[in-house]
Amino acid sequence: RFPRMLWDRTERAARAAELYAAKVHPQDRFEAQLVVLLSALGPLVVYSAALDGYSRAPRRTVVPGLCIELIGSLGLKMSQRIARDWQSSPRLVAALEKSSGETLGNALHVGELLGALALLESQRVITGDERLATVNGAGLHADLVDGIWARLAGAVSAPGRSE
């Protein structure tokens, strides 16, 4: 289920990042989506490599905790490496390296947070009140997030809809 859930979260996160960038720096909308997509690619590659390793040793049982640990420790590094190998813009690489406090870094942070919260709420892992508390705890202003959330929730409730 990991690849499917990661993609679901990533779609939501990319949309949230785009909407965030549209509000604060409209010319960064495309790159905001791209940085979120790149951030998800590393964990997916690590997961696939781990499963490939298990497939080469059929007597071994997949250890979910090990997969989680590998993704946690190597996923971001792999995303950064992919971005550099693909000769992505220095701004994208800096955003992935979390060394950028500019629009793309902020869009990545906001997108990933809202994307994860949207997925968790849709799966009924958290409530709307818990989502709001998390957003408030992250220091995001309601006037910024409310508009993004409304559009994100609308896009989520109508799959395949494009604006």
Description:
The protein has 163 residues and is an all-alpha fold. It is built from seven helices and no strands. The protein is 77% helix and 0% strand. The chain has helices at 2-24, 29-55, 64-85, 90-96, 103-122, 128-137, 142-157.
* Overall 3D shape: globular
How many DSSP-defined strands?
0
Which H/E pattern describes the elements?
HHHHHHH
Structural class: mainly alpha
Strand count, sense and barrel status of the largest sheet are: none
Work out the radius of gyration. Answer: 17 Å
Mean pLDDT: 88
Distance between the termini: 28 Å
* Percent helix: over 70%
Total helical segments: 7
* Unreliable parts: 157-163
Strand content: under 5%
Task: Write a brief caption for the model.
By secondary structure, this protein is mostly helical. Helix content is 77%, strand content 0%. It is globular, with a radius of gyration of 17 Å.
Please specify the SSE layout and strand pairing.
Elements: H1 2-24, H2 29-55, H3 64-85, H4 90-96, H5 103-122, H6 128-137, H7 142-157
Features:
single chain; mainly alpha; globular
